[in-house]
Amino acid sequence: MQFALPPRGGTLPLHSGRSRLSYQRRRQFKVAAVLGLAVISLFLIFSYFRSPSIISPIPAGTSGIIIVTVLDRAALSEKYIHRIKKNREDYAKQHGYTNFFADVSDYESTLDNAPRSWAMIPALRHAMTLHPHSAYFYHLSPHALIMEPFKSLESHLLDKNRLESLMLKNVPVMPPNSVVKTFSHLTSKDIELVITIDDADLNTGSFVIRQGDFANFFLDVWFDPLYRNYNFVKAETHALGHIVQWHPTVLARLALVPQRTINAYSKDSPGVSADGIYRNGDFVIRFHGCESDPVRSCDKEMELYYDLWEKKVDDE
Questions:
Q1: For residues 198 and 175, is the Cβ–Cβ distance under 8 A?
Q2: Transmembrane stretches, by residue range (predicted)?
Q3: Which residues pair with 309 in a beta bridge?
Q4: What's the predicted TM-score (pTM) here?
């Protein structure tokens, strides 16, 4: 029988195979630890920059809703402007909202000779820049009065259950019979833009938009020079109708609600239907088109309703 002999000049190392295996395992553990630490570090950095509560905490007293009103001082009387401001300021005070009043002239340099009605879009972007922590922006035409000062926008429109009950699903987005219809599967949690239609169009005089990535995208698309220079008959109104019908990304975030919810018209307004005429108890009355009709007077149309609104406020 033969026995293995030890090598010359030394002895055979004890457990040499086990030592090599332990060394390899230690290297693997080190590599895994380094990779794990790198992944955790990247996750923490990503979370830090994605978390608004870390990089920019919401200041105390921040309004959840900003009311945006774009005035045209060149076309409106001082008395009219004073009344519009008083109406909005009283409403905002009742509910802890903030007003953003702008003038068309503030944005003339951005309009590139487009109709002045386009100014509401840069005004909304301006308001969002100044109020980055506010959730909703309510654009309301200067030719409108809030008639129910004690109804909050949350309870009247934005509460998820309330909005769900108001959403018009599977209806044409452009009257009377557009083949493009509102999506039937949407719920209130999908909605970033709340608007109404009248007998002729989607109407831009009273709508709510939620601040965020969608709002930035949507307002950029809407204000694109291609649309501003296209000479739509109704400027930004027809541009919006085009966008909603051709961009499902927008349609997937849009809710149509009954017109009188936030956009009831005075009886002399064009495009008004029987279901769209203001009735006592409606949230808003709009004197739609009063500024462009030589037969009508915005001041005179507002007079009666302003007195009614003042009486409601005083009685309370």
A1: yes
A2: 29-49, 55-76
A3: none
A4: 0.82
Note whether 260 and 279 are within 8 A (CB): yes
Sign of CA dihedral 199, 205, 207, 212: positive
Residue 258 banded pLDDT, cuts 50, 70, 90: very high
Q: Which domain holds residue 261?
A: 65-315
117 falls within a domain: yes
Distances (CA, A) of 56 to 60, 127, 168, 226, 294: 12, 18, 37, 35, 50
Q: What pLDDT was estimated at residue 202?
A: 94
User: Residue 287 and residue 265: Cα distance in Å, rounded?
Assistant: 6
- Count of structural domains, the chain: 1
Q: Count CB-CB contacts under 10 A for residue 302.
A: 23
In a domain, 51, yes or no: no
| pLDDT tens digits for range 93-103 | 999 999 999 99
Note whether residue 33 is domain-resident.
no
CATH of the domain at 304: 3.90.550.10
